[in-house]
Amino acid sequence: MLKDELKVLAAMAAGFAGMIDKSEVLSTAYLTAQETHITKECQRIKKVWTDLLFSQQKDHVLRRYMPFQQQVILETADFTFELISSAKDKGLTDDNALLKLPLLMQRCLLDLRDFQVQYFQSFFDQNGKIPLAGTLSVRKKMTVVAEELSAGLENSEIDPGLKVCVMDYLSSIIHTDGKASLSYRAAGYLMSFTETLKSTISIDGSPDLTQSVTEALFYLNFNHNSFCRWYQDNVATKKSIMPPDDRLPMLLKQLLILKSMPVMTNTAFDPNVAAIHIQVENWMIEFLRQESFNIKGDDYELPEKLELNLTVAQMALLVRLLYEEGVFTMTNITAILKFFSTRFMSKKQESISYSSMNKLYYSGDQFTAYAIRDLLVKMVAKLNKMFFPK
Fold first, then answer.
1. What torsion, rounded to 10 degrees, do the Cα atoms 293, 299, 305, 308 define?
2. What is the tally of structural domains in the chain?
3. How far apart are CA 54 and CA 269, in angstroms?
4. Domain boundary among 282, 299, 316
5. Do 360 and 229 belong to one domain?
């Protein structure tokens, strides 16, 4: 069973608050002894961690243990940072004896963090937060590289819409509060993003810089909503200016190009949403189906669900009217409601549950009734006009 090696340092850090509050007088001998203790404890921790690299511990154990130690470092470092900041707000300076140990502790904790990053990269939690003591310097570096890339993009010959997508992302980095929390993943992604795009736009003689930047953004898995929308609009615009007979071949070629573009699967702008190639490919397939429908007309295969220009409540009330008037030969209302919830979608809701249909079937309101009555009146008027003209 692996133990918490940072327990001693965390306990020492917790004691600093009382020491500062009481304005204790610290002798040189005491400070020297405590500094030595902190330094030796950090050396001991590094040795224990180094021994783990050559031990028989299974990877799955280290994947739990190292992020746990990473979290302890974060909590202790943030506690120490806030303690130091509070003391400075009250007038204490870095050379004050009361801050000597907290400042040393902060440096040592960040050093342990760097040791983890260097030697336990595969077990490190990239979604973990960077300690407050290190956030400001990292954000300053991120701002510098974002501003450099923005300046390089200003005069680059790429599609204006694509340029806006990239500049918006960089602007959000530049204008974020330097003290705002930051994850290792977000910081690392921006560095990879700027390095890749700077290399891409600096290559002279590129026949199509827009395509080169697009491929780079796919490689970086830049699954930002604005980039996804730009790509869709760009394809739709290309299709609209082509002769009708050339549109389907163009879309098929575009899908082939899309499938051939490499995408990093271990990184993303937003790891909580689908990768950029998956989002765009799903859209492209549906776009192709629509184009195929325009060409083949009645031969087009119906989708799994049909969209109705009705709300779920209106749909449920309409089904009730049809059922109570004996339109359905089936008398099992449960089966009928399940059929409609499976085969149809409303104008506001793609996925309709049976429970929603069943509830609304029996609890329609007057507002819904007005909408359905208006629909039925219009249908009767149209029927009269078609077959019973005056």
1. 70
2. 3
3. 35
4. 299
5. no
* 307: three-class secondary structure by DSSP: strand
Give the DSSP letter of residue 129: B
24, 141, 21, 9: which is closest to 69 by C-alpha?
Answer: 9
Residues 181 and 284 in one domain: yes
Q: Which letter, b or e, does each residue of 121-133 get, where b requires 16 or more Cβ atoms within 10 Å of its Cβ?
A: eebbbbebbbbbb
Residue ranges making up the domain that contains 32: 7-125
d(Cα 128, Cα 185) in Å, to the nearest integer? 8
For residues 282 and 292, give the distance between their C-alpha atoms in angstroms, rounded to a whole number. 15
Angle of the 97-119 helix axis to the 132-154 helix axis, nearest 10: 60
For residue 351, give the amino acid letter.
S
Which among 100, 125, 150 is the end of a domain?
125
Q: How far is Cα 256 from Cα 340, in angstroms, rounded to an integer?
A: 36
Structural domain includes residue 121? yes
Rounded distance between C-alpha atoms, residue 265 and residue 278, angstroms: 11
Question: Along the 390 residues of the chain, how does pLDDT read in single tens digits?
Answer: 567 888 999 999 999 988 888 888 888 999 999 999 999 999 999 999 988 878 877 888 888 888 999 999 999 999 999 999 999 998 888 889 899 999 999 999 999 999 998 888 888 888 899 999 989 889 999 999 999 999 888 888 889 999 999 999 999 899 888 778 889 999 999 999 999 998 888 765 556 889 899 999 999 999 999 999 999 999 999 888 888 888 888 888 888 888 888 999 888 999 888 899 999 988 888 888 887 766 654 444 556 678 888 888 999 999 999 999 988 888 888 888 888 888 888 877 778 888 888 888 888 888 899 989 999 999 998 888 877 776
Who's near 284: CB < 8 A, 6+ residues apart?
A: 235, 251, 254, 255, 258
How far from the centroid of its chain's Cα atoms is residue 53's Cα? 32
